[in-house]
Amino acid sequence: VQQISGMLMKLFQRARLEKPGQVDPRAAEFTLSLLVAIYDRSGTGYIETRSAAAALIALSGDTLLAKYRAFFQFYAVPDGKAALITRSALRSLLTDLNQIPAIVGESCTQSCVEIATHSCFHGVLNSAIVEEKFLSWLRSEPAVLLWLPTCYRLSATKMVSHQARCR
């Protein structure tokens, strides 16, 4: 938790420099509190860096495709020239991501994660998949992660401006 706190302080300090006046001075503190609430409910003082990174990616303002690619980079394992995501890594990713809606009472059972993992690897004979297969599966909006594109669309609509006038 202390290491993540330090990283968040640096991250938001850099963000404040890039966007003066747009970043709350307590952003690092608030974000750390959220990460602790999500991933350290028992108060052990330990959060896996990869889990924290997954949450930060999921909650970032980036595009869905950029988020999906970042998930792949964090959870994939190198295999020669390419990187692959294994069933085990996908389970870890889905478990980590499903802690986010769980904090507001929208939990998913472990069987949801298993069903999603099975659907991603449907028709795959290998023990791991390449990035394109992973991205294709995520673009199909699996039920276990439906909250992610929904939140993205909601945040994207805030930027929409119509030049219509109402009476």
From TrEMBL:
Gene (name only): Dytn
The protein's name in its UniProt record: DYTN protein
InterPro entries the UniProt entry points to: EF-hand-dom_pair (IPR011992), EF-hand_dom_typ2 (IPR015154), KCMF1/Dystrophin (IPR050774)
Residues of the signal peptide: none
GO biological process: synaptic signaling
Annotated EF-hand domain residues: 65-154
Cross-referenced Pfam families: EF-hand_3 (PF09069)
Stored SUPFAM superfamilies: EF-hand
GO CC aspect terms: plasma membrane; synapse
